[in-house]
C-alpha cells in the first residue's frame, strides 16, 4: 500500500515535489510533507558545516570530525564508545551480529518493530539469527510474562534455539512514536540479565524519547547493553547513524561494519551534519512534538465523524489518525490534491503528503522542515477535505 502510493506520487514529480512551483490555478503550491521525518533537507547551517568539515581517512581512524561525533555521542548516550555507520539498519544488524555470535541464536522482538518488518530480514539472511516476534502492546511494549515464557521455554533444551538477545524500539514507530516507560526498560533488563540475555535498543528516535521524558538520553540507554541512533530522522542529517556500547562491543562492531561494507573514508563530511543535528535537537524536537500536539488537538476540535485521534497517544512527533468511512488512501489522495474550489475558498494551494498506515489509519510525522504555520495550513486543508467528504 505504502509502495503503491509512493510510486503513484513519483509518477507526477513536477506538480508536487518542487516547493513553491506554480500550478494550474496560478497560486503558488505549498507542499507540507508529513510522510516521515526522513524527508528533511539539510538547512544552511548544516550544509555549511558539511562544506567546512575537517576530514581525514576514517578507515585509518583519522577523521577528526567522525571522532568528535563518536566521542560527543558516547558522552551524551552514557556509553563507553560509539561507531558512526551509514544507516540505522546497519547499526541494528551490526548490534544483533555482535550479540548473537552463534548461528541459529534467537532474537526476541515486537512483531511490528522496524528491525523485524522493514530491514529485509537482514538478521536472518546475513547473520543467521532466528527472530521470534511477539505481539506489540498499544504502548509499544511487550508483555513481560510472555517475554519470560519465551526466554525460559528453551532453557537447557537441546531442541530449542538459544535466546541471546531482546530488541526494543524507542520511540516505538508503529504505535505512533510512543515512548517506552523507564520502569518497563528496567524490568526487561532485569529479566534478560537473570537468563543471560542482552538487550539492544533500536533508538532511531531515541532523542525524541529523551525530549518527551525530559531526561538525558543516557538515563534511557543505561538500561540496555547496546543502542543505535539515527541521524537522518528527527535530527535532520542527510545520512548516518551510530552504534553505542562497551569498548569490546564497539571493537567487534568495527570489524562487522567493515564486513558489511560500511567502512567509510572522509566521512567527516557526513559526521559534520550529524553534529549539527545533535547540537540543536533540544530546540528542534520539542517544537516538532508541540506541532504534532497542536495538529492532534485541532483535528479533535474539527469533531468529524470521519477522523479521530487518541490525544493521550500523541507523545512525540507522530500522530496516528484513525479513519472511519472512506479508505485512508482516498483521504490521502484528497489531502495531496489541490482543486480550483479550494483555491477559490482559501486562496491557497496546499499539498499535504501522507501515507496510509493501516487499512484504517493514517500516520502523520512532524519534523524540522514543518513550521507551526505549516501545521495550521495542514489543519485548514484537513478541514476542507473533511467538508468535501461530508458526514
Ligand atoms: C528508520 C528506522 C530505522 C532504520 O534507519 P535507516 O537509517 O533508514 O536505515 C530503524 N529503526 C527505526 C525505529 C526506524 O524508524
UniProtKB/TrEMBL annotation:
Keywords: Lyase, Pyridoxal phosphate. InterPro entries: ArAA_b-elim_lyase/Thr_aldolase, Low_specificity_L-TA-like, PyrdxlP-dep_Trfase, PyrdxlP-dep_Trfase_major, PyrdxlP-dep_Trfase_small. Coiled coil: none annotated. Transmembrane segments: none annotated. GO terms for biological process: glycine biosynthetic process; L-threonine catabolic process. One of its GO terms (molecular function) is L-allo-threonine aldolase activity. The modification N6-(pyridoxal phosphate)lysine is found at residue 233. Its cofactor is pyridoxal 5'-phosphate. It comes from the Eukaryota. Residues 33-323 form the Aromatic amino acid beta-eliminating lyase/threonine aldolase domain. Belongs to the threonine aldolase family. This is Probable low-specificity L-threonine aldolase 2 isoform X1. It comes from Callorhinus ursinus. The gene is LOC112814426.
